[in-house]
Design goal:
Length: about 120
């Protein structure tokens, strides 16, 4: 299992990144998170990537921008799939307000639900 300062990674047929930091707001934190996520995604090139937000209470739009970059790497550049899961209502509502829930991102209640759709 790969461990970052802000997330844990489980690799197998489906690569799961579980965010471990409850507040993804601080600009320094978000910048480090962005660098670590992009580096991991480019280095490991997962074909099936699940991002688990179950520990996240708050999420800034800068994180959402990073996820858009991750999606480009995984889906467009590598012909893979990206799914999100485990969002608390306030985090998911941010994706909804930006019209990203169900349009740009496939968001599921749980990792089990998301894994069943790969």
């Amino acid at each position: 299992m790969t461990v970052s300062k802000y997330f844990e990674v489980r690799q197998g047929d489906i690569t799961t990144i579980r965010f471990t930091e409850p507040e993804l707001f601080d600009t320094t934190l978000v910048a480090e998170l962005k660098d670590q996520l992009i580096d991991f995604t480019e280095r490991e090139t997962p074909k099936k990537l699940l991002l688990d937000f179950s520990e996240v209470e708050f999420c800034s739009t800068a994180v959402i921008n990073t996820l858009l970059r991750i999606k480009k790497i995984v889906v467009r550049d590598k012909a893979g799939q990206l799914k999100l899961c485990g969002m608390k209502p306030n985090v998911r509502s941010a994706f909804g307000m930006l019209n990203l829930d169900g349009t740009v991102f496939d968001i599921y209640e749980s990792a089990v639900d998301a894994n069943a759709t790969f």
